[in-house]
Design a protein that fits this description.
Elements: H1 8-14, E1 26-31, E2 35-41, H2 61-77, E3 86-98, E4 107-118, E5 121-130, E6 133-146
Length: 162
């Protein structure tokens, strides 16, 4: 199978996340319902580095887990019809381990493998590496739920919105 590559525009067409929480920059491999490999370029300009930690910026572990889940979300949502009306939400995280700090300038390679796939839920194992070093791994469970209709802020009354 020829690897499927997704750029940021294709990723944003599938995932609802946006700055500052969109944590996938590129997809370099996809095997539908089986596996995905994504890239996250870690930049000092990201807002979490203002406070985590001043003078020693490291990527929060929870953000690496979120990147794993987003890669898994791309894999799941890419294969779901009518995905515009759906969201993928966390239902569990097992066995999270953080092996090495991730710092600005690093490139995370996120590999997610499906352990169990159902039409409305998935269990996946994710591994994040920098170069050849494992920096994070976890098993994540996610469910597919209806996406609420966004409130556009428009008013139905004759009074102007403030």
């Amino acid at each position: 199978m020829v690897p499927q590559i997704m750029d940021i525009q294709q990723i944003m067409a599938i995932l609802p996340h946006r700055y500052p929480l969109l944590l996938i920059d590129r997809v370099v491999e996809v095997e539908p319902r089986k596996r995905i490999v994504a890239i996250k370029n870690v930049s000092f300009n990201e807002p979490q580095f203002q406070g985590h930690f001043p003078g020693y910026p490291i990527m929060p572990g929870v953000m690496m887990i979120e990147a794993i889940a987003q890669a898994g979300g791309l894999l799941l949502l890419n294969d779901i019809p009518n995905r515009e009306g759906k969201l993928m939400v966390f239902t569990g995280i097992d066995g999270a381990k953080f092996r090495k700090p991730v710092v600005p300038g690093d490139q995370l390679r996120i590999e997610v493998t499906v352990l169990n796939w159902r039409p409305t839920a998935v269990r996946m194992h994710g591994r994040a590496t920098v170069g050849d070093k494992l920096v994070c791994e976890a098993t994540v469970m996610c469910a597919l739920v209806p996406r609420p209709v966004a409130d556009t802020g428009s008013s139905t009354s004759s009074e102007p919105a403030v």
